[in-house]
Amino acid sequence: MTYVIAQPCVDVKDKACIEECPVDCIYEGQRSLYIHPDECVDCGACEPVCPVEAIFYEDDTPEEWKDYYKANVEFFDELGSPGGASKLGLIERDHPIIAALPPQA
């Protein structure tokens, strides 16, 4: 199991969760943040600091955002497991689910 970043993060990317993550597993895409499922240690430190309540434990993700688990996993298909987001900085792409969304207000 892992944590998932869902739609409320799209076009917001507050990054408080990045600062709170003890294992540096939250990566920044063009429009959203993503939690690496293999690097996350399920500590939950990110969830309470998210100002838009976009982070959910995988099993607790609201039904309307269940596809965001897939987006968080598949975002790393090309990257593999880099071993820390700070090494990469901004990744100039997003998962197709997120890229296809209209701009979020």
UniProtKB/TrEMBL annotation:
It comes from Streptomyces kebangsaanensis. SUPFAM superfamilies: 4Fe-4S ferredoxins. Binds 1 [3Fe-4S] cluster. PANTHER family: FERREDOXIN (PTHR42859:SF2), OXIDOREDUCTASE (PTHR42859). The lineage of its organism: Bacteria, Bacillati, Actinomycetota, Actinomycetes, Kitasatosporales. The keyword Metal-binding applies. Its cofactor is [4Fe-4S] cluster; [3Fe-4S] cluster. Ferredoxins are iron-sulfur proteins that transfer electrons in a wide variety of metabolic reactions. Keywords: 3Fe-4S, 4Fe-4S, Electron transport, Iron, Iron-sulfur, Metal-binding, Repeat, Transport. This is Ferredoxin. Residues 31-60 form the 4Fe-4S ferredoxin-type domain. It holds the Pfam family Fer4. The keyword 4Fe-4S applies. InterPro entries: 4Fe4S_Fe-S-bd, 4Fe4S_Fe_S_CS, 7Fe_ferredoxin, FdxA_Actino, RnfB_subfamily.
